[in-house]
Amino acid sequence: MDPLEHFFRRMAARDDISSEEQHAVRRAVGASERLPPRTSICRLGDRPHTSTLIASGYAARVVPRVDGSRQIVALHMAGDFVDLHSFPLKLMDHDVETVSDCQVVYFAHEALRELTESHPHLMRVLWLLTLMDSAIQRQWLALMGTAPAPERMAHLICEQFLRAESVGLVQGQTFAFPLTQQDLGDVLGLSVVHVNRTLQSLRQSGLVAWENGRVELLDRRALLELAQFEPEYLHFEKLPR
Amino acid sequence: MDPLEHFFRRMAARDDISSEEQHAVRRAVGASERLPPRTSICRLGDRPHTSTLIASGYAARVVPRVDGSRQIVALHMAGDFVDLHSFPLKLMDHDVETVSDCQVVYFAHEALRELTESHPHLMRVLWLLTLMDSAIQRQWLALMGTAPAPERMAHLICEQFLRAESVGLVQGQTFAFPLTQQDLGDVLGLSVVHVNRTLQSLRQSGLVAWENGRVELLDRRALLELAQFEPEYLHFEKLPR
DNA sequence: CGGTTAATTGACCCACTTCAAGCGCGGTGG
DNA sequence: CCACCGCGCTTGAAGTGGGTCAATTAACCG
Predict the structure, then answer these.
(1) Residue B69 Cα distances to A237, B38, B65, B207, angstroms
(2) Residues A80 and A53: beta-carbon distance below 8 Å
(3) Is A139 helix (H, G, I), strand (E, B) or coil?
(4) HEC per residue, A187-240
(5) Which DSSP state fits A155?
(6) Per-residue pLDDT for chain B (241 aa), expressed as one digit of tens each?
(7) Distance from CA(A93) to C1'(C3), angstroms, rounded
């Protein structure tokens, strides 16, 4: 199975990628690896010389706090780079770890650097990908600052559903979302206890079903409404970049 | 006075910018303008054809919420691009407005595009600048999710102080920070009332003085300690990018 | 079948919110 | 020159969303 399938699908939803550019990307691919759940991909303070693309599974970017608490600042699925930003930034300012079993491929920063020299358009698209992560972080920030727990939870579910859908990872109204309630708490800034109660209220209202790491949207319209969801920030738009 | 002074200073702290590159940047500069406080620079849904660099003053990026509340997701000072991300993203997913009186200069996206074709290294540095904004957003997210009000406030003050210091905007232990308490609440996800009380406790502990839009760090060490401040995420490091 | 990790539930508590009222001051117009 | 207005800051009182602590259950696994 092509490890870059979802990656190309994600880019193709934002701009045309020529076959020459696709070949250039394929030439830049390095090693491939399967990682079990809860494996560290890189850590705060690291200076990676590769960036990691997820071919399958879920990973999280985590800011560890001195008191032992954690904040998940990004969730990544098949077709996402988890640490493309480490290519310009050089120094990791947070951790990255797998949430589920993941298949990953690595891109050497040296290969990426050559791409930026030879393929400016491709580089602008890679830049775009890192900025799409930023756009999501802005929404999360807005939700943390202003929205109560049920709205935050609903918003997260809608967002992940639409992102999964856009790369072909949705079956019916169902998609794989293998986070524990503790993980959800670390994303939403809530305690496990409150995550549990919030989920129960969503279930009892008939909005979602959630079992065995799969989420089903039972009432998509009502969920979008509760979340006050506006999808523009996901930048699903094909434009010359 | 050179409108790009702080901008070059900010870049120079991260990598060497050749004089040829500096000239290329200067050739890309467009119009210049003075904007009064609370002026909109661009809005959610806009498709700007320029990006805006602040030569002096403060501006904020604001995610407006349907219920009328606002979340400030970034603060920008002299030498910052407020919306460089609109160059690859094309569509604004939030508002940008001035906080104080601002002098700004505009860069046409077309000129930036030409820079990406002719000056790959410069583009990697611009990419870096957008990712530094991201890094700050991640910290804010972590603070919103895990830290109580006094720590958040202290962290914000330390961060803005160090950022201002790095471009030469600090005098002694004092710097201009012209936000209202309402603005602070919109940054920190707190009500004005609680912002007020939090500030008073910081003042009474002798950590900061805050008057006429200027902040003075009275006890820098204690403030950094309260904030649990770790400066790595600001990426003050000169490296080949 | 013991051990570990995730989900659940109940009881109590507090950081922060909301509402409401006053205060200080710079600006402005009569 | 002063009365008034509006905005930002401050203070008090009362309410609540979500946290903490602690214990139980459920599912899985070697």
Answers:
(1) 27, 16, 5, 30
(2) yes
(3) helix
(4) HHCCCHHHHHHHHHHHHHCCCEEEECCEEEECCHHHHHHHHCCCHHHHCCCCCC
(5) H
(6) 899 999 999 999 999 999 999 999 999 999 999 999 999 999 999 999 999 999 999 999 999 999 999 999 999 999 999 999 999 999 999 999 999 999 999 999 999 999 999 999 999 999 999 999 999 999 999 999 999 999 999 999 999 999 999 999 999 999 999 999 999 999 999 999 999 999 999 999 999 999 999 999 999 999 999 999 999 999 999 999 9
(7) 36
Q: Which residues pair with B178 in a beta bridge?
A: none
Kindly determine whether the C-beta of residue A196 is less than 7 Å away from any atom of nucleic acid strand C. Answer: yes
Distance A71 CA to C5 C1' (A): 20
Out of A116, A142, A188, the one facing B63 most closely (by C-beta) is A142
| Alpha carbon of B136: minimum distance to chain A alpha carbons (Å) | 10
Rounded Cα distance between B152 and B226, Å, is 9
A181 touches strand C (CB under 7 A): yes
Strands lying side by side in the sheet with B70-76:
B40-42, B95-98, B59-64, B70-76
Report CA torsion sign: A67, A68, A71, A74. positive
Does B71 contact A123 at a Cβ distance shorter than 8 Å? Answer: no
User: Three-state secondary structure along B136-148?
Assistant: HHHHHHHHHHHCC
Whether the CB of A190 is less than 7 Å away from nucleic strand C comes out as: no
Q: What is the DSSP string of B20-53?
A: HHHHHHHHHEEEEEEE-TT-EEE-TT---SEEEE
- Tell if the CB–CB gap between A65 and B188 is shorter than 8 Å: no
In this complex, which residue's CA is closest to the C1' atom of nucleotide D27? A212
Q: Which residue of B has its CA nearest to A145?
A: B189
Tell me which chain B residues have a C-beta less than 8 angstroms from the C-beta of A93: 135, 138-139, 232-233, 235
**Cβ-contact B34, B101 below 8 angstroms:** yes
Q: Say if CB B124 and CB B88 are below 8 A apart.
A: no
Residue at token pair 């403030």:
B223
Chain B partners within 8 Å of A45 (Cβ): 232
Q: CA of A55 to nearest chain B CA: how many angstroms apart?
A: 24
Neighbouring residues of A103: CB distance < 8 A, sequence distance ≥ 6: A3, A32, A33, A34, A35, A54, A55, A56, A57
